[in-house]
Write a structure and sequence with these properties.
The chain has 193 residues and is α+β, with helices and mostly antiparallel strands. The protein has helices at 62-67, 95-104, 160-171, 174-192, and strands spanning 2-14, 26-33, 36-39, 43-44, 49-60, 70-77, 85-93, 106-117, 123-138. It folds into 2 domains: 2-155, Sandwich (Immunoglobulin-like); 159-193. Keywords: Calcium, Metal-binding.
Length: 193
């Protein structure tokens, strides 16, 4: 049975929401189309922009590309000690692209920006994605792993160490601690002279 191939070029994103106050952030994207799920490489932010330049190929049966009409991109911020943070989600509606691609045999769209929507429904940042759909291609579905597409991955196990750190570090009055530490250092250096 002939189906189609959807190629998604994940280019970059910018102005994403940060969960970390200090340091640069590392991001990855979970791409969901129908029952297929792909995860991008983890990339570090540089100058307010994150670059992936990664291509993903979704092999589709005729029923899939006629029934499923959107591609969901969940942007996640990597955390070393805790569960990864949801940085936002972009949705690319594909009905028109798939319909025109089916009529012409193929269609290619240059990378375009899509708004990143946060959990509260506001917009923060954008992700740049390019698309290419080729119809009437033998979609070899054998060997393709099928998993559910819930968007955000299942909750990761929470580290006890990270929980204690979060609880303790947020409650330390850092300015007072640093002030007294500075005074103690000054007094000890005066005594040594």
């Amino acid at each position: 049975m002939k189906g189609g191939v959807l190629e998604v070029l994940l280019v970059s994103s910018e102005d994403l929401k940060h969960a970390h106050i200090l340091g640069s952030s590392k991001y990855y994207v979970i791409l969901c189309y129908g029952s297929e799920v792909f995860t991008s490489k983890i990339t570090q932010e540089g100058d307010k922009k994150v670059w992936w330049n990664e291509k993903f190929v979704f092999k589709l049966s005729p029923s899939e590309w006629k029934d499923v009409t959107k591609l969901r991109l969940s942007i996640m911020e990597k955390d070393k000690f805790h569960e990864d943070h949801f940085a936002g989600e972009a949705t690319v509606y594909l009905r028109g692209v798939l319909k025109e691609g089916n009529q012409k045999g193929q269609i290619e769209l240059k990378p375009a920006p899509y708004n990143v929507v946060l959990r509260d429904g506001t917009y923060k940042g954008e992700v740049k994605v390019g698309l290419k759909f080729i119809s009437n291609v033998e979609a070899d579905m054998v060997g393709t792993e099928k998993t559910g597409c819930s968007g955000v991955p299942e909750r990761q196990a929470v580290s006890v160490y990270r929980t204690i750190l979060n609880f303790t570090l947020l409650r330390i009055p850092w300015p007072r601690f640093l002030l007294f530490h500075g005074r103690a250092t000054d007094q000890s250096s005066k005594k040594n002279k």
